[in-house]
Design goal:
alpha+beta, Immunoglobulin-like, 2 domains, 8-stranded mixed beta sheet, elongated
């Protein structure tokens, strides 16, 4: 008799527990307001025309103008290059994680998926990351670029905050797409022979 009572209590308890996890708790979780971090990126390139052999600077200041976020990323990509060695140098940054160099052929996240969707990098890129991301906090990364060939030298820049909850979670929100199928600001410096 005691065994039947204990088994009955355990069975009822388990039924209540599983019912809560399937029907009640997901509703309560989805009802919670999600934070929306909103990145903003300012870019300064003092020289838009240089001579071959000279360098130019790419200065970025990024900020989360929205809610608290987990990760804040600033990315600089170089679609006219096949490598950054000896061409692009990180001068200074104040992100909590060291910037990483991405090379053509590396597998990288795409479509603002947080790594769930990936593509193969077609050109080099540098990503700086900070975590966590408090509202109103600014971060900077300065690059020095010394092109090896004359002609237009293009730089793609963007900022993404995670969690990526809407189009507000990336900057810019429209324009040209890069190899990750994400929007970028496009800057060109003319390199004269």
């Amino acid at each position: 008799m005691n065994k039947l009572v204990v088994i009955g209590i355990v069975a009822v308890s388990l039924s209540v527990y599983f019912s809560m996890t399937v029907f009640v708790l997901p509703e309560k979780f989805l009802d919670k307001e999600q934070f929306t971090p909103v990145p903003h990126l300012e870019v300064e390139i003092p020289s838009t025309e240089i001579k071959l052999g000279e360098s130019f600077r790419v200065n970025t200041i990024s900020e989360n103008t929205g809610d608290y976020g987990d990760i804040h990323i600033v990315s600089a990509a170089f679609p006219t290059l096949t490598k950054t060695d000896g061409i692009v140098r990180i001068v200074t940054y104040d992100f909590s994680n060291s910037p990483i160099y991405i090379n053509p052929g590396d597998e990288i996240g795409a479509k603002y998926s947080g790594g769930l969707e990936t593509v193969v990098a077609q050109y080099p890129q540098i990503e700086a990351m900070n975590r966590p991301v408090h509202p109103g906090t600014k971060y900077f990364m300065d690059l020095q670029v010394t092109p090896e060939e004359p002609g237009p030298f293009t730089v793609y820049l963007k900022s993404i905050d995670i969690p990526h909850t809407s189009s507000l979670s990336h900057f810019p929100t429209q324009g040209q797409l890069d190899h990750q199928e994400e929007y970028v600001l496009v800057y060109t410096v003319n390199v004269n022979p």
